[in-house]
Amino acid sequence: MSPNGQTRGGKVTASDNLYTVILALAFCVVLATAVFVAYKCHFQYDTIFEIP
Amino acid sequence: MSTLTKILIVLLTISSIFLCGIVVTYVANADNYRQMYDDQIDELNSTKADAQNDRTLFKKESEKYARLEDKLRSEIASLTRKFGDLKATLKIVEAEKDDALRRVNSWAAIVRDFYETTDEHTQLLKNTLAEKIRLEAEKEKNLKELNELTTSLEQKMAVIVMLDEKTKLLLEEKSELQDRLDKLLQPIGKRAVATTPVTPERAIARPIIPETRDIELKGLIKAVDLKNSMASISIGTAAGVKAGMKFHVTRGDDFICDIRIIDVDAEEAVGVLELIQKQKQPKAGDNISTNL
């Protein structure tokens, strides 16, 4: 896996690290969403998993 | 890394971002049901408290209105009684008003008659005043005539006095001549006879002596006050007694005294005793008369 672009059959392609970064970004987005939802639940209902 | 894996990574990332955006948007815009629940609970409690207060206030107001109603009922009953009394009073007042109106009409008629009578009297007074003025003028005229007649009478009286003096002189001369004639005729035993004048003698005018008539009032003494020399008699103005009259008091054929009347009533008179004798004093029952 090279950080630079790879040339496959004469075409320029992105390196694999880029997809890793995209995947990490997706993970961060999901994590931030989960944290935001947890914060809102705790702020509004004083609990995260129980039904008040 | 295969192409499929890459595509899946890209799709996963895009879908994750999309779904997370939807979730974040939903959670951010979701309602706070707990807060709403608490608000509703608070509102419910507040409403219950208000309802309780309203019930308490309603009870108080009901009691107050009940008391007020009782009071108003009693006032209505009182006012109804007063209304009845006022109706009766109004009837009485209306009757009095009618009576007063009748009186007013009667008085108005009387006043109209009074005014008419006053007008008649005023006219009569004017006529009387005119008559008085006319009579005063006539009186002035008569006074002038009287003065002229008095002057003429005085002149004639002076002439009469002068003629009387002449007559006296003539009578004296006549008596002297008669004496002389008697002296001349006595020696021959004759006397002169009074000659009758051819012309009848005129008599001198003399005032007519007024004819008198006795009053002839008679009565009795009612009471005597010797201390003040007063006596009351049994006749008064009804019988013709007047102040200043003199009554003679007699007892049988004896004269007692006189009474000079000073005050006269209808059936009685009072006078002063005069010419009282010590031996014969007047007493009640003695006869009185104006003429002896």
Short summary of the structure?
The complex is a heterodimer of chains A (52) and B (292). Chain A is mostly helical and 52 residues long.
Can you put this structure into words, describing what you see?
The complex is a heterodimer of chains A (52) and B (292). Chain A has one domain (6-45). In chain A, 58% of the residues lie in helices and 12% in strands. Chain A has one helix at 16-45, and strands at residues 6-8, 11-13. Chain A has a two-stranded antiparallel ribbon with strand order 1-2. The longest helix of chain A has 30 residues, at 16-45. Chain B is an alpha+beta fold. Helix content of chain B is 62%, strand content 13%. Chain B contains two helices and six strands, in the order ααββββββ. Chain B has a six-stranded antiparallel β-barrel. In chain B, a hairpin with a 4-residue loop joins strand 1 (218-225) and strand 2 (230-233). The longest helix of chain B has 153 residues, at 33-185. Chain B is rod-shaped and about 245 Å long. Chain B starts with a helix and ends with a strand. The interface between A and B is medium-sized, with 18 and 19 residues.
Which secondary structure elements does this structure contain, and how are they paired or packed?
The complex is a heterodimer of chains A (52) and B (292).
Chain A: E1 6-8, E2 11-13, H1 16-45
Antiparallel strand pairs in A: 1-2
Chain B: H1 3-29, H2 33-185, E1 218-225, E2 230-233, E3 246-251, E4 254-264, E5 269-274, E6 287-289
Antiparallel strand pairs in B: 1-2, 1-6, 2-5, 3-4, 3-6, 4-5
Q: Give a short account of the largest sheet of chain A.
A: 2 strands, antiparallel
**Which fold name corresponds to the CATH topology of the domain at 218-289 in chain B?**
Elongation Factor Tu (Ef-tu), domain 3
Mean pLDDT reading of chain B: 90
User: Which band does the percent of strand residues of chain B land in?
Assistant: 5-15%
Q: Strand fraction band of chain A?
A: 5-15%
Shape of chain B: rod-shaped
> Uncertain runs of chain B with pLDDT below 50, 5 residues or more?
none
